[in-house]
Specification:
The chain is of the alpha/beta class. Helices cover about 25% and strands about 25% of the residues. It has an eight-stranded parallel beta sheet with strand order 8-11-12-13-14-15-16-17. A six-stranded mixed beta sheet has the order 3-2-7-21-22-23, with no helix packed on it. A four-stranded mixed beta sheet has the order 5-4-1-6, with no helix packed on it.
């Protein structure tokens, strides 16, 4: 099936194209052509002058559709979560699994492996090799120090479904980080009390990112800049940030963006209301908390994070969209996502002038 998208402003991830048509064949983008050259066998999709951009990519979202995946690591929950996330304009995501029991990990690995979906890019294991001091809402009894045997056992059981792992660099050796990277895992520093030197060593050993910058980590201090200072001073390490104005103030988001430029990307860090298991999240008006009031997750979508960057942090629309699409895709080496280019997935959002969703095309078909 061939579709021609016309009458649109296309944001490719690098530029705006408004005088051409976009051709999609099946679930892949073919490229741009002149309107006079539209193929006769193409179905025409009139975009009514809206902005067309690549689907958004969220590397850290724990649930949706009424399910927290770590509490319900089942095929039914995965299906509901995926459908709910797709409706928000996020067409590719990693499910975040907080520090947990071996039994829950096993169930999650099995469910994701045996129920593939093109939007589910894998798991982001947030833990269990994190700092006790900076655990945040993580279950303290499940935190453990990594050993080579423990890491190998976890990876063998996961069988490729782990795509990202958050760990505390001060607890790891270079060999452990190398093992993770050799399995194709993007390693991120987070829930960490690392000194500036420890964090810098971690980046030198191959850690590529930092998880939810400023949250659950050593502070930026003038005597020891900690993990934030180390990622600021890195030439290549990226960092995710939660743009809800609660986890991080918008002024600090502006500062971080000026320093890190294209190395800073967005995550929702969204959870779901849940009253079972070790992660019980209570929905508040603008966030989620544990029953004791501890901040435990965000209540935003990736698209609302984009709007917050534009409206509250002085970030341009094009750059805010890249922070939610191109940059996270690039970090986990998903070259066919987060961009409109020949060979890329035909996951497209139609947005009006207020960045409200008018239509979603997923796998080349209207969602």
């Amino acid at each position: 099936m061939k579709t021609a998208f016309v009458n649109a402003r296309f944001f490719t991830g690098t530029e705006i194209i408004s005088d051409r048509a976009l051709i999609v064949t099946g679930d892949r983008i073919t490229g741009f052509i002149d309107h006079a050259s539209l193929p006769g066998d193409a179905e025409v999709a009139d975009c009514n002058g809206n902005l067309v951009t690549a689907g958004l990519i969220d590397l850290q979202i724990a649930g949706g559709g009424g399910y927290l995946f770590s509490a319900h690591p089942t095929p039914e929950a995965l299906k509901a979560i995926t459908e709910a996330i797709l409706e928000t304009g996020t067409t590719g995501f990693l499910i975040a699994m907080p520090t947990n029991t071996p039994e829950v990990y096993s169930e999650a690995f099995k469910t994701v492996r045996e129920n593939p979906h093109p939007a589910v890019m894998g798991l982001h294991l947030e833990g269990p090799f994190i700092s006790y001091a900076k655990r945040g809402a993580h279950a303290k009894e499940q935190i453990r120090l990594p050993s080579p045997a423990d890491v190998e056992s976890l990876l063998n059981e996961a069988d490729g479904v782990i795509k990202m792992m958050t760990l505390a660099p001060e607890t790891c050796t270079p060999e452990i980080i190398k093992t993770l990277k050799d399995h194709g895992i993007t390693v991120s520093a987070g829930h960490s009390n690392a000194t500036y030197a420890e964090a810098s060593d971690g980046f030198a050993w191959g850690i590529e990112a930092t998880t939810h910058l400023f949250n659950a980590m050593s502070p930026l201090h003038h005597r020891d800049p900690g993990l934030p200072g180390a990622v600021f001073n890195s030439d290549s390490a990226c960092a995710s940030i939660i743009a809800d104005g609660i986890h991080v103030s918008y002024s600090m988001l502006t500062i971080a963006k000026k320093i890190m430029k294209e190395r800073l990307y967005l995550v929702s860090d969204a959870v779901e209301e849940n009253d079972r298991g070790m992660y019980q999240h209570v929905r508040q008006s603008d966030r989620y908390t544990l029953p004791d009031g501890t901040l435990s997750g965000a209540n935003i979508t990736m698209l609302s994070a984009v709007k917050n960057c534009i409206n509250n942090a002085g970030i341009t629309q094009d750059e805010a969209l890249r922070m939610a699409s191109l940059y996270p895709a690039r970090l986990i080496k998903a070259a066919d996502r987060g961009i409109i280019a020949p060979g890329a997935r035909a996951d497209l959002l139609l947005l009006d002038d207020h960045l409200e969703i008018k239509n979603i095309f997923f796998n080349g078909k209207q969602n």
